[in-house]
Amino acid sequence: MRVFVTGASGWIGSATVDELLAAGHEVVGLARSDASASALEAKGAVVLRGDLDDLDGLRRGAADAEGVIHLANKHDWANMAESNRAERAAVETLGEALVGTDKPLVVAGGVAGLAAGRPGTEADPSPAIGAGSPRGGTENLALSYVDRGVRAVTARFAPTTHGDGDHGFIALIVAAARRHGASAYVGDGSTGWSAVHVSDAARLVRLGLEKAPAGARLHAVAEEAIPSREIARAIGDVLGVGVTSVAPGDAVEHFGFIGGFFAMDMSATSEHTRALLDWTPTGPGLLEDIKAGAYGT
């Protein structure tokens, strides 16, 4: 299959490109820089130069492909309105390009906010509706194309998709521990984060592209809920620093913007996804990765 991938040189995208190529697919990767283009070409992927604001390029990439995987996001935490706007415009452009084709469109999302007081499941609809909502409401937007002849699928990633070289949320929490000389959690540390190794996430994306039915919500979740205090303890152990609690009202000051997320419960299950796709995570767990030095620890 000829697959157009946005975010192809990113953390999850790079692993997904490797997974697709290993499975025999042809990959066309969106690249906004010379470095990204060179990295993709070195892997054997075809490069389409552009970014999320290049809607003509996105439209062309989708129209020329047999399937689309959308993983890119601006992740501009200082201007989330702009990130959400760009995300919605990109998904709308990709969806419109595939109308009436029955081609697969896999769109990235997350598990945050799916349920209160329990882990989220694939049966839980995304509460983000409309352009002003998180990620521009693109999960619901993507699934609206099912009735218009697109095999739209959403891949909800755990809040930490970890592995050697990850520079995401856990890396920011590790950086805060280095700055303060102590590894912290918020409140009593009972809130849980789900997690998945990047190799398992990439395999799920490929399987979703290949065989998930239209309208499926997939959960890239290997570990359902790791208490934040356990994450802090693992970081503290490898850094050789103490472990402490931070009051919820001080979380953002201590950690930066990530503090607001670390205080949240972002747990989810993946039972339906595993059964649907015959997907069994095999990568190391988050605490194992931390202890093995995946975050420079």
Describe the model:
InterPro entries: Epimerase_deHydtase (IPR001509), NAD(P)-bd_dom_sf (IPR036291), NAD(P)-dependent_oxidoreduct (IPR051783). This is Nucleoside-diphosphate-sugar epimerase. One of its GO terms (molecular function) is aldehyde dehydrogenase (NAD+) activity. It comes from Actinomycetospora succinea. Residues 3-213 form the NAD-dependent epimerase/dehydratase domain. With 297 residues, the chain is an alpha/beta fold. It has 2 domains: 2-159 and 196-220, NAD(P)-binding Rossmann-like Domain (Rossmann fold, 3-Layer(aba) Sandwich); 160-194 and 223-267 and 276-291, UDP-galactose 4-epimerase, domain 1, CATH 3.90.25. It has 12 helices and 12 strands. The protein has helices spanning 11-22, 34-43, 55-63, 80-98, 138-143, 169-180, 198-211, 228-239, 251-255, 258-262, 271-277, 286-291, and strands at 2-6, 26-31, 46-49, 67-70, 104-110, 151-157, 160-162, 182-186, 192-197, 217-220, 223-227, 242-246. The strands form 3 sheets. The protein has a 7-stranded parallel sheet, with helices on both faces. It is globular, with a radius of gyration of 19 Å. The model has no long low-confidence stretch (mean pLDDT 95).
